[in-house]
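Quality-control log, excerpt.
Job 1 of 2 completed; input and output follow.
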Amino acid sequence: MHDAVALANLIYAMPSKTQEDITKIFEEYHKERIPAVMESYNNSQIVSKLMDRGI
């Protein structure tokens, strides 16, 4: 859900709809979202391993 909101906000704030601007917003989106996504993914992996061990 947060990904959709982040991307929608970037699209809304675009100064124009050129290919260059679209490429820039996707690069910005990637920089903004990847750290949070990776943190969530890593936390999920830890929880999954703990649950497999019965902890």
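Job 2 of 2 completed; input and output follow.
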Amino acid sequence: ILEHVRDAEQGYLRRIAGTFKADPAAAFQAEMQRTHQAVLDALDAGMAHGLPRQGPRGGAIWPLRYFLRRAGWHVTDHIREIEDRSS
């Protein structure tokens, strides 16, 4: 589940004009830290410079607030899933 959440965050980055190049050889914790830093950098850039109207291939760009809600919901949903499995 942790890898799935990390991979989803990496994918969501494209929706706020962020980029991320995964390193399959990296340790999980290091890759998670890199992912979080890329998210922070993309959010900072979006706040400072705004977001493009669409992605480089015409894809939808999410408002920053939506990105945060979506990423937060995704983590919360999986926390609940883990709790349900442990009961």
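Post-run check on job 2. The mean pLDDT is 95.
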